[in-house]
Specification:
With 188 residues, this protein is mainly alpha-helical. It is 68% helix and 3% strand. The chain is built from 7 helices and 2 strands; from the N terminus they run ααββααααα. Strands 1-2 form a two-stranded antiparallel ribbon. Strand 1 and strand 2 form a beta hairpin. Helix 2 packs across helix 4 and helix 4 packs antiparallel against helix 6. The longest helix is centred in the middle third of the chain and has 28 residues.
């Protein structure tokens, strides 16, 4: 297992949807960056574990028929792990940078994380090649329970990003839920 230090947790630094109007391009680039980070998480994990992968349309698939449950869990959850890490980094920049383009790009990364999670809570939850299904196959845990587990950090991050005055404990609890998710995947 590797150690991955979390950045100091931060709130959204007062970002609001109204900031989107100042620089939509940076928000869209951030969203794209968040999506890319998710997919690179899968690719990086597969490469790290020596697992072959292929693209099947928009899906990354692992054609090895004898993929161990541990490897299946790690590659299936790697997208969430990557998006959680980049969202924490983005929250740091949101709270500590006053440049509109940088804060909007950071907000976009977080919005990308929220959009990916929303997709996995709805139409991708039971997708045969989806992350939730892959994690379920590896662990025997139901898709519904796994979806609930990935929903919690997203709900907390939505509150962090869009809440008028989120409580001071919220960033730490949100980062903790993500850390627990990463630890669970690596130690299951």
């Amino acid at each position: 297992m590797f150690a991955c230090p979390w950045p100091v947790t931060a709130d959204a630094g007062g970002w609001s949807v109204a900031d989107l109007k100042q620089d939509r391009k940076s928000v869209l680039l951030g969203i794209a960056g968040g999506l890319i980070a998710h997919e690179l998480g899968h690719i990086s994990m597969a490469t790290l574990r020596g697992i072959d992968f292929e693209f099947d349309g928009l899906s990354i698939v692992y054609p090895e028929p004898d993929l161990s449950e541990k490897d299946r869990l790690l590659v299936a959850s790697a997208g969430f792990q990557a998006q959680w890490l980049v969202s924490e980094i983005a929250f740091h920049y949101l709270a500590n940078d006053r440049d509109v383009a940088k804060t909007n790009a950071s907000a976009g990364v977080i919005l990308g994380h929220l959009a990916i999670t929303a997709a996995y809570l709805t139409f991708l939850k039971d997708h045969a090649q989806g992350d939730i299904e892959g994690m379920s196959q590896a662990t025997g845990i139901s898709n519904d329970r796994l979806a609930l587990a990935v929903a919690l950090p997203a709900v907390l991050d939505t509150w962090r990003l869009l809440g008028a005055a989120p409580p001071g404990w919220l960033p730490s609890v949100s980062a903790l839920t993500k850390g627990i998710g990463v630890l669970w995947a690596w130690t299951y």
